[in-house]
Q: What sequence folds into this?
């Protein structure tokens, strides 16, 4: 039979770096990730405050369920598109899409300022930040391979989404409480899991600044989602309603 493979496979470049260089690359990459994540959170918070203080926009967004759910669907589309196509787009486009998502999320999250007191939002935010920080540090420095958590956490998130959607119609207070605590546990674990994944992502664009920027923004989006969801579930537990 004729051999359709080349006689000698073309040599693939092998990049050899020391452990110290690898650590420096990961540290620099994670600084980018946390920088973009912090910028997006600040943008989301600023937009949410602005919208909540503008009665006309509140009436348009909160007073019209069709508009509110359309914005939520648009957010889901943008996140899905960025996650699936990040490395096929230019880094500037990925960045703008991420920031646009942050603005959209700020618009929909403005509702929390109408439901909960400012003090409880602020205190819950700091609790969320502390919890996120501890778990992200754990994910970054632990020698335990957290990859085996992946399938379990994803199944948990799917189940949580289904239960939350069902409870939108059922309005069961017990299920609301259960999903709130389960949500906190899931996103605490996801924070550590995703942080460890980001360490591996640091080498994707090791010799390509464009790819490195895309990977950093994608990592920022992932951790941004973990933080926001952790904050919202903690707010459901500890937030004081107006």
A:
């Amino acid at each position: 039979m004729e051999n359709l493979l080349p006689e000698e496979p073309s040599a693939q470049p092998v990049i050899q770096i020391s452990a110290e260089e690898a650590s420096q690359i990961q540290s620099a990459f994670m600084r980018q990730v946390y920088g973009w994540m912090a910028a997006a959170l600040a943008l989301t918070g600023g937009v949410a405050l602005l919208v909540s203080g503008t009665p006309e926009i509140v009436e348009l967004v909160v007073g019209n369920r069709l508009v509110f759910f359309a914005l939520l669907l648009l957010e889901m589309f943008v996140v899905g598109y960025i996650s699936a196509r990040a490395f096929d787009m230019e880094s500037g486009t990925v960045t703008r899409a991420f920031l646009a998502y942050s603005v959209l999320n700020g618009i929909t999250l403005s509702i929390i300022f109408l439901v909960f007191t400012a003090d409880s939002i602020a205190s819950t935010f700091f609790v969320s930040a502390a919890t996120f920080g501890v778990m992200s540090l754990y994910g970054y420095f632990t020698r335990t391979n957290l990859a085996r958590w992946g399938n379990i956490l994803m199944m948990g998130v799917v189940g949580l989404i289904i239960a939350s959607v069902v409870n939108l119609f059922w309005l069961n207070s017990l299920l609301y409480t259960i999903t709130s605590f389960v949500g906190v546990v899931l996103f605490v674990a996801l924070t550590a899991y995703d942080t460890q994944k980001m360490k591996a992502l640091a080498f994707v664009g090791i010799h390509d600044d464009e790819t490195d920027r895309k990977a950093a923004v994608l990592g920022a989006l992932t951790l941004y989602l973990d933080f926001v969801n952790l904050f919202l579930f903690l707010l459901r537990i500890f937030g004081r309603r107006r």
